[in-house]
Structures are given as C-alpha cells and as structure tokens.
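Table S5 (text form). Sequence records supplied for joint modeling of the two-component complex.
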Amino acid sequence: MIAVGETRQSARFVWLRRPLCAILAAVAGLLAIDALIFRTGLYTSILEPESSTGLFELVLRREYQAQSSYGRNLIVTLGDSRFAYYPRVANQQTAVTGFAFRSAGVAGTNARAWYYMLRDLDPTRDRYRAIVFGVEDYDDEDGAYDVSDDLSALHYVAARLCLTDVIPFALSFHSPAERWEAFRGSLFKGIVFQRDILAFLSHPAKRVADVKLTNGGYEQWTYGYVETDRNVVGLKVDWPTLTATLPPGNDVLRYQMNCCVLYRPYPQTGQLAAFRRKWFGRLLDRYRGTPTKVVFLRLPRGPSPRPDNLTQKKSSSIREFAARPGVLLVDEHAFDSLERPELFKDAFHLNNAGCSLLSVRMAQEVAKLLR
Amino acid sequence: MPFNTTRFFVFLALVLVLFYTAPRAWRKYILLAASYYFYASWNAKFIVLLLTLTVIDYTSGLWLERMPPGPRRKAALIFSLAANLGFLGFFKYYNFLAANLALVIARPPRSFFLEIVLPLGISFHTFQSISYVVDVYRGRQRAVRNPVDYALFICFFPQLVAGPIVRARDFFRDLWAWQPPSPDDLSRGVFLIALGLTKKMAFADQFAKVANEYFANLAAHPGALAAWSGVFAFGLQIYFDFSGYTDMAIGMAKLFGFHFPINFRRPYLAGSITDFWRRWHISLSSWLRDYLYIPLGGSRRGPWLTYRNLLLTMLLGGLWHGASWNFLIWGGYHGTLLAIERALRGERPSADEWNWAYLIRAPLTFVLALIGWVFFRAADLPQSVQVLRQMFGGSGGRVLLEPWHFGLAALALILAVGEERSEWFERAIRAPMPVYSSALAAMLLCLEIFGVLDAAIPFIYFQF
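The corresponding structure-token record, covering 835 residues in total, follows.
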C-alpha cells in the first residue's frame, strides 16, 4: 500500500478518537437508559407475575411487607418447590412453639437465588429469628448437570443484581458461555427481561391489569393456598432393575420417574458440594455474629426415595456447616415417615395431606431446636 | 464465524489492531492472512478452491492484457470464464441438473446424486472474478501484477461470503492508493456496523422466528392471515438480514480504508418493480446489467428483444441464488413483471416520484415483491403453490405476528421514510458527537430489547 502523507507518531491514532469516544459514550448511554428503566423499579413493577423474575419479586415484596405484621419471633423458610408447606398451618402452632413462619421460597430456585433474596429481604440481618433452608439431602450427590451453571438463577435474581454484583455473579458460573451470558445479562438487564418486555408491548393494558390484580391478592392467595389431594398410591419401584409400576394415567409421574428418579449414579465430581459451600457459605458468613440462627432441614425426598446403594455420597457440606456457631440441623430422619405415596402428588411434591403434616412437624422440629 | 457472533467481533478487533499497528507495507498481508483464516474457519478445504480460482483468474488477467486481439485472446477469456462457471456449476448446479436428468430418463431422482458441500460465498467471488477478467478483456481494467493484491480482491473477508460484489476498479483504487480512513469514514464505518447488527439481530431474526415457524409446518398454520403474515415476516427478514449483512460489510471495509458500493436503498419504498431492482441487491443488479443484460443487447433492439433480455437476465439472476425451480420461477416472475412494466411504460423513465399515485404504487410493489418471496422461501414448488393458495384462497386463520412485530415494522418504516426523505442516518453520522453517540446508543438499546441472542439464526445469503 502506498502511504499518502506521513503522520507524526504522537498524532498517529488521533483519528481514532471520535469513533472510540462515540462508542464509549453510546455504551455509557445504554447503561444509563438500562439503569433508569431496569434498576429503578420502573419496569420491575410491571413484570409478568408468572415469570421467573416476576414471581421472585412478588415473593420478595410480599415477605418484605409481612415483616412488620409479625413480632420478633419470625422465622423465614427458603427452598424450592419441594419445600411445600402451609405457613398458615405452621402458624396454628404459634401458641405452642412461640414462632411465626413465613415462606420466601420460590419454585426452581437454589442457594444462589436465596442469597440475593435474603440480602434484600433482610438488609439489616436482624429481621428474623431464624432462617430455615429446606434441602433435598444433607449429603452432596452430584446430579445430571452442574448446578453452578444453571442460568435460571439469572432469571430469578435479575432485578436484585447491582452493578457491583456483575463480576462476582458472572464468575460464580463455571463454563465460559454461561459466564458470558450471566455477565451481559446482569449488566444489561433488558436482555434478561426481553421476552417479558415484548409480551408487555403486545398487550400493555392486560399486563397492567394482571399486575394490579396479583399485587392486590397475592398474600391472600398464597397464604390460603390449598394443594391438590391427588396422590400416587400404586407407585412401586423395583430398584435393582430401576423399573417402576405406576398408577394409571399419570404421565407427569412417568416422566419424572424416568428422568429424575430411576437412574444410575452420575460421576461424582464434587460440584454440588462446591456450590453449596460457596453459596450457603456466603449466607452463613452474612449471619455470623447475629442473633439469627440458620437451620437446615432435609425435606421428604419422595414417595419412594432412592435407596442408599444407588447414591454416592462423598461429602456432606451441610453437616460441615453444623459445626459453625448459630447453625442447626433438623434431625435428618424427622420427616422420613412422610415419604409415602399417599402424601405425594407426584415424584417430588407433597400433596395437601403431606403439606399439612410437614407444616406441623416442621414447626415443632424447628421450635425444638431454637428453644 | 458469522458476523453476529462475539467470536467474530474479537477477530475483527484483533485484525484492526494488527492492521493499524503494523508497518504499512505489511498491512495487505495481514488482511490476506486474516481473510484466509476467516474463510478457513468455515471449511479449510475450500481454501484450495479459492486459491485455484485466484491463480487462474490472476494468470488470465495477465494473458489477456499481453495478448493482441484475436482468437487466442478470446480463448484465454473463455478458459477463465469456463473455469469460474465450471466450478460454480459443479458445486451449485450439478445435483439440480442430475436430478432433472434422472427425471427425464425416468430414473430415481438421486441416481446421479453426489454429496456436494457448497463452498461458502462461491457465487459472490465467482461473479467478482468474472467481472475482473471481462473488464481486463474489454480494456477497462489494468491486469493486476501483484498476486497478493489479486488474492486480496477475491477473498477480502468483509465481503467474501455474501458481497457486495465489488468491481475490480473500485477495490484496486482503494488498495493501490490506500489512505488511512478519515474520521468521517470511521464514524460511518462504526455506524454501519451497529446499524447492520441491529437490522440482523433485532429485526431480521425476530421476523425469522415467525417465518421459520410458518414455513416449517404449513399444516399447523392454515388460512390466509397465517400465510400473509408468514410471507410478510419473511419479506422483512430477508431485507433486514441481507441489508444488515451488507451494512456491516461496508462498515468494516471503511474501517480498513476501503469503500464498497451501496447495496440496498430502502427497496420496500420502491414505487415499481423496476425501481425495486434499482434498490435491491444493487451490486448484483448492476453486475447483471453490465455483464449480461447489456451484452445481450439491453433495450437497444426493440421492445420484444428488450423483454426477452429482461426475462433472461432475471432468470439467470434467479438461478444465481440457487439451483432449484423455485429460484428460476422467482427470477422469471420478476423478469416478467419488469417486462410488463417496460411494456406499459414504453421508453419513458419509470415514475418514481412521491405523489398521490405513489401511495398506491408502493404498497402494490411491496405486495408483488412478497408474492415473489414465496418462491424464494418455500422449500419446493408444491410448498410454494400451497402457500399461494392459502394467501389467495384460504379462509381466515390466525395472524402469526404479535402486535409488537407490527410496532417494529412501523418503526422500520418511519426510519426508512426519514432516511429516504431527509437522510436521517447520514445526518446522524455527520452530527456532533452527542447526537452521533445517541444514535449508536439507540441502536444498542434496540439490540438489547429486540435482539435475538439465544438462537444463532444464520444469514440467509451465506447459503448462496
């Protein structure tokens, strides 16, 4: 190439200044608009109530508002959909136990989401007498996928992430692809809310009406919620051959059993233990030196739990936590008697009778530990 | 390595840094190496094909310039054209011809079938090569002495896979008298890259989801409304997809100090099909005009031969897109419309001014273009017929587009009219920094809200 006109070395890249400054200004402008819309509560107030973020925010708002209605003996529980119980029934024991229970659990969430939930629900770390985490097992058994790479967490906690969370949140994922997605989603929240925004743009009036209706009745609907009476009586599992006899016409149960119950153990890499140590560790550190106790309880595992010979348990991070001050474990077998087909509606979730029983027993067990 | 990936932008940034930090004498070698790497990232084997064509056309150019006029010179031209069209014909049309031959001699359709992978961008670089060789033959272009220069002309990565089809004189003008891009070029380059990316990811890919859903399963979406909305979605998809790619290619070239011709000029604002083809894929239309329509006689030999030439040119234009009866019909359809318009208009230039008649002509032209897209998008002829039947004879059905899709289309229309009438984009590029940055931020916001990030929808023209 023939150079036309020599430029001085010092001025070599002066011509780059305008486009580079423009790009930087545009990115800064985008960040400012994104922050104005998605970090101020402007958009989160109209999130679809049935979306992951919408539900998470709804539960958080509900529990935040409920704090003032209860006294100092308030206990909050966190878990996924398996931790299904009735706070209303648990609170019928208040006269006996001395404690009031509220549930801040959201279906599909795990310790990573619970950390961000509690950080905003209890900013002063003194609003709860105890925090109860419902877990599937005290032992760490790796499943089919690496839980630390579960991007659904981004969709639950998107509205909770501050700019200072962007890097640590992204780094909490393992694979580069998930890290990148978590990074860009927590920096530019519009990306995470995209589907929600497009649905809103299609039917804005309906969305506003839905949000208004849900905000008005959510506390009442959830506190008074009654689970189905359906059960899985007839379910029998032959564990040596990993085959199940199912009650007729229950396709959901068939799917759940085939995909998530009747399997040979996966290779154990310690990923679940690492995940628990990281996120429960952060939660425990947060409450270290506070009057709030942290309680773990093992949930009823299912109508026909996997036998010990089908699990490989190399470690037990939850039991390790019990060595810390202020951390308590409910007896591991306290709810074994609930692991019966007549108390489950499917392979994982308690039915109405199961929820009622768990509510009473959980309240009693937790109270016993705290007294 | 499609343009709409993080990997590509990392590659582009690295090449830019290398290009501008290296001594000037090295820069074209850096571009050449980057271009071959870019091509090899799709399929390294076809580098051999690219090199073979490069050697043939480079050598042909030198021969054609040195030889005196006569049969040997013509033979050199034919050799070069045969090599280019031979490779293109084999890779692109062999199976189509073989299947039709099998049909004619009543053999199973796949009797002579070969598992052929179409080399990326072969239609584009072949046309580019042909234009170079023909221009040298016609004495309109100096033969390139430096093989590296010629190789770079063929494989320059911004336009290698889907154009625009750059003429040799434009490319070598920039290469041989290379100057660092001006601040205006850089502003324009960055703006076009952002615009192209927005067109592709926020507009094309959103409409692609609807079009793909419709064409993947016609039975699931019966009715005229479903058909029209599916075809409408494809019409917008293909425009935003291809013009988005082109904008990015032109923008990237500007960052390296090269100036590519404009390839799209708001074609859906055209007031006639003739006007449409002056605005759609301009580098192909002008190539077909210069190397096919005019050599065939153009409009110089009376109306009937003009209609024939229009039809032949568009048939070949259709076939250039792909080896199928659908592309041939699409080309024939447009050739016929052009001929009809020519017959109605006579020798008068087409009336493209904005007046009350434009309000009828422009939507009509758009609808005619949409009907053509049915052949372009449908998997085969029976599916095309099925879609057209639904469009014109189907019962109600369901609109496949959400209200926000129409909002997106309305936004695009407003911007297109603004650009057409008042050069909004041009003004934004030349505007003071705050306005220019705001325009970039608006595009980024559009990408954030509408960009399809969770699905890698390939550029349509990468298959040609």
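Note: The interface with chain B takes residues 1-5, 7, 13, 15-16, 18-19, 21-23, 25-27, 29-30, 33-34, 180, 188, 190-191, 194, 197-198, 201-203 of chain A (CB under 8 Å).
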